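// run 5 | inverse folding | seed 20
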């Protein structure tokens, strides 16, 4: 069975999810306080963490922020708040996905499976025999190694979450071309795109900031490598196609 860490103070919900997910091959370790959840997250490399926002001891946002200082593992945010801003904040802080309470257990299972599929694909690529490992993708100063799950820009290693890695890989496979949101939603998030879902926007925003932070000197001030094509999708802009900067 695959172990999951569930950090949620609703004990009835935790019991229900523990029993439901066990039927599908998941063993849930439940913790009911934010500070204890952070401790549990540090204790081992969890394949996935289900994290509630409203927690005693330490709220979910702070737990997520601290988790991201030592782990790029998958985090699915659970929130009872109806405000979009809370979901957006969670994604900006590094959550892989979110689900608003109350939710259908089957929808949660679908999200967990989508995230797990990405992790399984990553592990399979990393442990595949050398002879059949996929070659690195190289686009100008970006080098993405699907087998090692690493990304370098101008020689600097960039620490990406699983979603950010998959997003960059999808864009690097079509450099200079617009990749539609619908394609990215299915490829990266494992679900159909919905017009009011801001998840992709937030992941692109985080990836854009990380790419910018990895550059130094004059390159750091250069135009964004990830371009949003309003109403259509996103594009990995080739440096040679960027407009010349003023002296």
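// decoded
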């Amino acid at each position: 069975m695959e172990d999951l860490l569930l950090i949620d103070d609703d004990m009835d919900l935790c019991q229900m999810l523990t029993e439901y997910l066990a039927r599908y091959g998941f063993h849930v370790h439940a913790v009911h306080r934010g500070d204890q959840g952070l401790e549990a997250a540090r204790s081992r490399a969890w394949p996935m963490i289900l994290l509630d926002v409203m927690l005693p001891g330490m709220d979910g946002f702070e737990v997520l922020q601290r988790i991201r200082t030592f782990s790029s593992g998958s985090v699915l945010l659970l929130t009872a708040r109806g405000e979009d801003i809370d979901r957006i904040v969670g994604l900006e802080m590094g959550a892989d996905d979110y689900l608003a309470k109350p939710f259908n257990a089957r929808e949660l299972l679908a999200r967990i499976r989508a995230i797990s599929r990405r992790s399984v694909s990553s592990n399979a690529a990393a442990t595949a025999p050398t002879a059949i490992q996929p070659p690195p993708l190289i686009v100008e100063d970006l080098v993405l190694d699907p087998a090692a799950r690493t990304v370098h820009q101008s020689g600097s290693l960039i620490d990406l979450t699983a979603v950010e890695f998959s997003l960059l890989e999808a864009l690097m496979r079509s450099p200079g071309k617009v990749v539609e949101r619908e394609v990215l939603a299915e490829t990266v998030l494992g679900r159909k795109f919905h017009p009011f879902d801001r998840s992709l926007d937030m992941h692109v925003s985080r990836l854009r900031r990380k790419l910018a932070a990895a550059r130094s000197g004059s390159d750091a001030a250069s135009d964004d490598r990830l371009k949003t094509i309003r109403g259509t999708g996103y594009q990995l802009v080739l440096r040679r196609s960027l407009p010349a900067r003023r002296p």
